[in-house]
Every structure is written in structure tokens, then in C-alpha cells.
Amino acid sequence: MQNKKSRSAFTLIEILIIIAIIGTLLGYSFLSYSGYIESARLNAAAKKVASDLRAAQNTAKNEHSTKSIIFSNKFYSLPSGISINNKTIKFAASGNCPPGFSGTLILQGKNRSKKVIVSPNGRVRVE
Length: 127
What we know:
Elements: H1 12-63, E1 67-71, E2 83-84, E3 87-91, E4 103-108, E5 113-118, E6 124-126
Antiparallel strand pairs: 1-3, 2-4, 4-5, 5-6
């Protein structure tokens, strides 16, 4: 008569397979998380630009004067790793943009970009 031993432990191969699976899942989640962080920073920067534009527009309306913002990496502060194209946006006392002073601001991150569009009638939107 043969005695069968009951197996109550994991083999080395089984443990190595589990470690490999966990490592693969962690690698994918890290890549996904870093992409999310960049996207969130870019969205926050675009909302800050749009908010500053709307504030300048409201100031121009309230003070009945012309207000402008110069967007440049040298003059406008953005989080590190995010750049913006050089553009001057100007608002007249009516809240509209004079000819030539509206347009699209492009915020560029590492792998993504966002647009802040200012129309000639003064509408500010983020895409």
C-alpha cells in the first residue's frame, strides 16, 4: 500500500509565476498613473490660463479700458514640464478682442496638449 502525502505548500515555480503576474500588473498601473498625472496637470494649467483670460476680460469691462496678457514661457508662469506658445491676447472695454488679438493658445505637455481658444467676440474655451 502506498501512502499519499497531502500537499500543503506552494512550489517555487508557482510563487515565481505569481510574482511575475503582480509585477506586470504594477508596471501597467504605473504607466496608466503617470499618464493620468500629466493629463491632470495639463488640464489644471489650461483652466488657469482660461481663468486668467476671463479675469482680464472682466477687468477690461469694469474699468472701461483695454487689458492684455502676454503669454510666453518667459513671462507667464506654468507648472514645470508645460509650455505655451507665444501670443498676446487683448480685450477691449466691450470685452471683445480687437482684430489680431484673439486666437488659440496651445499648452504642450510631454505627450499631450490642450488648447485655450479666444474668439474675436471674447469667448474663452478650453479644448
